[in-house]
Design a protein that fits this description.
Blueprint lengths: L1 H29 L5 E5 L6 H17 L3 E5 L6 H8 L7 E6 L1 H9 L11 E17 L7 H11 L4 E4 L5 H13 L4 E4 L3 H9 L5 E5 H10 L2 E6 L14 H4 L7 E9 L4 H16 L1 H9 L12 H19 L4
Parallel strand pairs: 1-2, 1-3, 5-6
Antiparallel strand pairs: 3-9, 4-7, 4-8, 4-9
């Protein structure tokens, strides 16, 4: 009797397991059934916001549900990223993170409420964004060599704008300042959109910013661009020299934007989102818009969740020794 009861119990357990195995994929296959919220950890109008809107607009068509952008500002993007880490892992709350929120934040915030590797599921790399050295249009130096000399001579009087501690604009200029051995006054904003507005208005002296935020202003002549921190010139700004050409070869910096979900999100949902992101990046209209802004489209091998996980790990290792002295 005991063996029969055990056999029956085992059969029921096996049947239940089979049922669960059947139901779980079915739920994933039905995803999404309602709108998705994409948290952007900075104010509207900045590089992360612009890239998010371009890519998610196409993804929404593929997924058959709207993707609502929610801008959440504060603490260099870590406020929004903490919120995303604590969200339900059902695929309906995502975040567009970047080098600042998912790498530089680790050494800069000793009490960071999340860990980029432990608290998120990587989905896809969306775009690379080269860094430019920019200044207000009436800033005295004519080229990068003069800029370096001028900043070194007047560092205590200089105001450098950024989007908050840990943001790309902050981190990249920290690297620049460490190379120049200067400590100007940092002026934080709730995003590089507001920071750029201040630069255009002449309220701050200079900043380091992602190319996406700068191309329209440079072409309009409302700000100066001294150099781009990449080995080669960017097609969207062919007249802006590289830092190597302009005399500062050891300043090399390129940021990135990528999509993440809270830890524990179903692999099937991650796969659906990754496929939608890849389809967006392959769309000619999306590619054209991103390239016009100076973005670098990720190669196919760099678009997988595994590749993004490796990128985050490597970026934390890269920026920790650079930024640890700044904390």
């Amino acid at each position: 009797m005991t063996s029969l009861r055990a056999l029956a119990t085992g059969a029921c357990a096996a049947a239940l397991a089979s049922l669960c195995a059947f139901v779980a994929p079915a739920k994933a296959q039905n995803y999404p059934t309602r709108s998705i919220t994409m948290i952007v950890p900075f104010a509207a109008g900045g590089p992360t916001d612009v890239i998010s809107r371009i890519v998610t607009a196409h993804m929404a068509q593929t997924l058959g549900q709207s993707i609502i952008i929610e801008n959440v500002v504060g603490a260099g993007g870590t406020t929004a990223t903490t919120r995303a880490a604590r969200a339900a892992n059902d695929g309906y709350t995502l975040i567009t993170g970047h080098m600042g929120t998912h790498a530089a934040s680790v050494p800069l915030y000793p009490k960071l409420a999340y860990h980029p590797e432990k608290d998120f599921e990587p989905i896809a790399l969306l775009a690379g964004t080269p860094i430019l050295i920019l200044a207000r249009k009436d800033f005295p130096p004519k080229d990068l060599k003069e800029f370096v000399a001028y900043v070194k001579a007047n560092a205590e009087k200089m105001n450098a704008a950024h989007a908050g501690v840990g943001s790309v604009s902050h981190v990249s200029c920290e690297l620049l300042h460490s190379i120049l051995d200067v400590k100007p006054v940092g002026v934080p904003f709730n995003g590089t959109g507001p920071a750029m507005n201040a630069l255009v208005a002449g309220q701050v002296d200079y900043m380091c910013d992602q190319i996406v935020n700068a191309v329209p202003q440079i072409n309009a002549g409302t700000i100066k661009a001294y150099a781009i921190a990449t080995p080669e010139r960017n097609p969207s700004l062919p007249n802006v020299p590289t830092t190597t050409e302009a005399g500062l070869p050891n300043f090399q910096a390129q940021a990135w934007n990528a999509m993440f979900a809270p830890k524990g999100t179903s692999p099937a949902i991650i796969a659906s989102l990754n496929a939608a992101a890849i389809k967006a990046l392959d769309d000619e209209t999306v590619k054209k818009r991103l390239l016009e802004l100076g973005s670098v489209i990720p190669a196919p091998k760099d678009r997988t969740p595994e590749a993004l996980a490796t990128l985050v790990k490597n970026e934390i290792a890269k920026w920790t020794p650079v930024l640890k002295p700044a904390t």
